[in-house]
C-alpha cells in the first residue's frame, strides 16, 4: 500500500462504475481501502498466470510482469516503442477486465482474442500499426498458462496447480525409472530368446532381414549353421518367470497415465485419481489401493535386482514371499503420486479438519489445502467460535507442531510473493498443509477479495509464513515470517492523506490494526461507533496508542480507527471492548510468530546477555594466561613426496636360494612354460618360485635367460649331483 | 533410511571375483613373450580389484593381435572391424551407461585406419578407457610399418626403411579439444601398468592409455635399451598420482613430480626421445562428457525412437487433408 490516498469529504466518488453491478459497499470500511476502489485500473499481482513450465521453473507470474517482460524485449526504447507500449498496455487492461468478469482462459488465447477484437474495434486493417505491434509483442510471449483472477476459487486453483506441477515432475521421474526398468527387463528376455532354436529358425532369420524377401540368401542353411542352441546357455526358468511377472506389473501399473510413446498393456486399468474433497475419501482410497501398491513396489524392487543380476532366489525369495505393508519404505512411496485434499472452511464438515491433522501427522504423501473464507467467524452468542483466535484460521500455526509437515499460510493477495515458498513446498518429500485466506468473506460486501485478503495480512489477522522441515534442523532455518509487511513491529504503519471539512490537506501515519480490519465486517458493526469530523473529541485516541498521550490517566480513552462511509467520507470509528480484546489476542498470536522467527526472541535475548558476560570474563582470563615470549612459528608442511606404499618392501633374499622380483613380472609365461611346478603365478598372475626342488638348476638358469625383464635370480645349485654345473654357474652370473 | 530397499537387498549378495573369473575358456594365442599378455593380466587384475561383474564389463576391439584381447576376457566383448572399435564402444556406452567399457586397439588399428574415430572419441570424452597396444608394427599381418614405426624400420611394406618420422600418439591426443586423460605405460613394468589402468578406469571421461608393447616376433629388441636400463624410464609421480611399490621404486629411480594439469609440461614429456615417460601426463576431471550431456530425460525405448522418427518424417510428408496425422500429445 504505497500509493497515497486521495480522500475527499464530498461524496463526489472515486468509484468508477464497472460493467457489472457492484454489490453495495458496507456501511464502514477501513480508511486505507479508499485508494483500492477501482482495481481494474491498477497493475497488481492479479490476474495471475498459472505457468505451464517444467521441473523447477516458476509456478506463476502476474500478467503485468509478463507484459513488462514482453515489452522490454519487443518495444524499442524510443518513440516507436512508446506507441507499442501503449497498445500492449491497453490490451493488458482489456484482458484484466475480461478476467474480472470471469472469462478466464489460456493467456495465448486471451491475448489473441482480445488483440483481434481491439484491431477490429479500431477500424484499422490487421496489418496496420496496432495489429502489427500486437503481433510482434505476441511473438515475444514465451510463457503460457491459465489466467486467473482473485476470488473465492483462487486458493483451490493455485494449490491444485502447484500440486500438479509436483505430480508432473514425479510422473517424469516415475516414467524414467519404470520405462528404464521395462526396457532392461525386455532386453534380458530378448537376449535369452536370441539363444533359442526359435530365434535361429529359417523363418526368424528371414524376417530379421526385413520385408524385402531376398531369395539370394538360403535361410535354411544359415539356420543350420547357427543351430547351436544349448540348454545351459538359456536363463533358468524361474528367473524368466520372475522377470515376466515383474514386467507385467510395471507395464500395467495404475498410478500414472502413459507418457509419450509408453507401450500400453491391454490389462492396464485407467489411472487412479488423486484429488479428494475429504480425508476420509483419501484414506479409503489408499486402503483400497494398497494391494496394487504392494504388487508394484515388489515388482520395482525385483526388477532392480534383476537388471543388476543380483537376484539370488535362496536369499531373496523368502523376503518377497512375505512382502507386506511393513516393508514399504518412504522412498518407495515417494515414487508414487501423492494425494491432494481440498478442504474448505465452512463447507467441509469440521470433523474432517481434525482428520486432516491425523493424516498429516501420519507422514502420508498428502497435500492438504484448507481454504479459509472467514477469519473473524460469527460473533456472539454462538460459542465456541465467537471471535478471533478460535477458528480454522489458526490451523496452520498448530500444524507446525506436527514437525514433519511443510506448512504454508498466506492470503490470496500475497501468493505471488510467496512463490518461492510454494516451490519449496513442491520439493518437500512429506505431507504439506497450505492454509490460504481467499478474502471472499460474505460479511464484508463490496470489498474485492484481493483487497480484503491483503488487509488480513496487513492487520496480522492472517500473517504469511512457512514452516519447512526439510530446510534444516532448527527453527531459524525452518520458519520464515519475512513475507509480512514491517515484520519487526506490532502493526504496520501507513501514511494517509485526507482533506478536512474546510478543504485543508492533512497527512497522518496510521497503524493498520486488527481493529481496522474488523470494522468492515457487518457482524462487527454493532461494536463500532462512527463519528463524523464535527463530532471528534479530544478523548478519542488512535487505536494502538490508547493509554498513552497527555492526560491519559484522567480520562477514559476512546480508541478509534479511521473509517470510510460508502461515499468515501472520513470517520473516526470508536471500537468497544469486544474488538479491543480480539485485537489483543491477535497481537499476542503475532508476537508468538515473531519469536519463532527470532524477532525479539526472549530466549535469545537472555542468552545474548549471558554470553556477553561470559566472554568478557574469559577474555580477562586468556589475557592473564598468555606467555610473554613469542610462540614458535609452526613449520611449513613438507611438500608431498611421490606416494610410496606404506608397506615394507619384500626382503631381497641374498642367500643361495633362487628368487623372482614378482612385482616386475610381465606374465610372458617364458618360465612357466619351462617348468610349471617350479614356477607358478600368484593371485595377480605374476610368477614366483613355487618349489625350487621341482626342477633342475638348468631350468632355472634357462628361465632367467629367457625372462625378458631379467627378474629371475637363479641363486646357487641345490643338487650338487646335477650335470654341467660349472657351465650353468657361469651362465647364471649375470642374473645373480 | 539412506539406502533403498533394493540397495540393501543387493548388499546381501556378496561377490568375490578372482582373476580366474575373468579368464575365458580360450587360451591366449599370442606369441610367447608378447607384451599383450601383461596387458591382459593387468586388465584382469583391475577387474578383480574393482570387483567388476563380468556381465557389466565390455571389451571392444578392432582387428590385430591386440584386438584379440576380448576373446580372452570372460566378459562381454565385441571383436569388430578394423579401426572401428570406438564407434561401437560409443554406441554401447550411450545405450548402456551402466556398463564398464574398455577399448583395446593396436597402433595400426587406432592410429592408421581408425584415426578419424580416435580424434573424435577424444573430443566426445565419453566415459570409457582405451588401451592402445603400441608395438610400432602391424603384428597380425606379419610386419608392415605402422604410423608409429621408427624412421628407417625395414618391414614388408618398407623394404628400404620407413620414410617418415613416426606419429606420436601422446602429443596428438594431448592436442585434441576436450582431452581429459592421457597416460603412458609399458608392458614391462606391470605394476605401473596396472596402476595407470586403475586410475584411467576411475577417471570420468575418455581415458587414453598408450602402452608400449613388445613384439618379440616382428619388433625384436625394439625396446631392449629401455627394458635393460631402468634409468631411461622416467616415472611421473604426483601427490595423488601413481602408487609406487618399494620394489619398483628401488629399480626405477628416475622419477619426476608432474602435475597432471600442467599441459605444457605434459607436451614436453610426451615428446621426450631418449627417455620413456611412464605415468599420467594429463588429467582434467572437469571436462564434460558427451554421454552425460546427451543423457535423455527418458530412456529411448523402441516405442519412443519410432515415435520421434515418425514425427520427423511426418514433418516432410504430404498428406491428403483427411488423413493428416493427429498431433501426438503428452
Ligand atoms: C579393412 C581392413 N584392412 C586391412 C586389414 C588387414 N589388417 C589386419 S590387422 C592389421 C594391422 C593391425 O595392426 P595393429 O593394429 O598395430 O595390431 P597388432 O597386430 O600390431 O597388435 C591390418 C592392416 C583388415 N583386417 N581389414
Ligand atoms: S606377432 Fe607380436 S604382437 Fe602379435 S602376438 Fe606375436 S609378439 Fe604379440
Ligand atoms: Mg601394432
From TrEMBL, chain A:
Listed Polar residues bias regions: 1-17
Region (Disordered): 1-26, 630-655
The name this protein goes by in its record: Ferredoxin
Organism: Tropicimonas isoalkanivorans
TrEMBL record, chain B:
GO molecular function terms attached to this record: oxidoreductase activity, acting on the aldehyde or oxo group of donors, iron-sulfur protein as acceptor; thiamine pyrophosphate binding
Domain Pyruvate ferredoxin oxidoreductase beta subunit C-terminal: 250-293
Annotated ranges, domain Thiamine pyrophosphate enzyme TPP-binding: 63-210
Gene3D superfamilies per record: 3.40.50.970
Gene Ontology BP term (one): cellular respiration
Record keywords, A-Z: Oxidoreductase
UniProt cross-references to PANTHER family, sorted A to Z: 2-OXOGLUTARATE OXIDOREDUCTASE SUBUNIT KORB, 2-OXOGLUTARATE OXIDOREDUCTASE SUBUNIT KORB-RELATED
Protein name as catalogued: 2-oxoglutarate ferredoxin oxidoreductase subunit beta
Species whose genome carries this gene: Tropicimonas isoalkanivorans
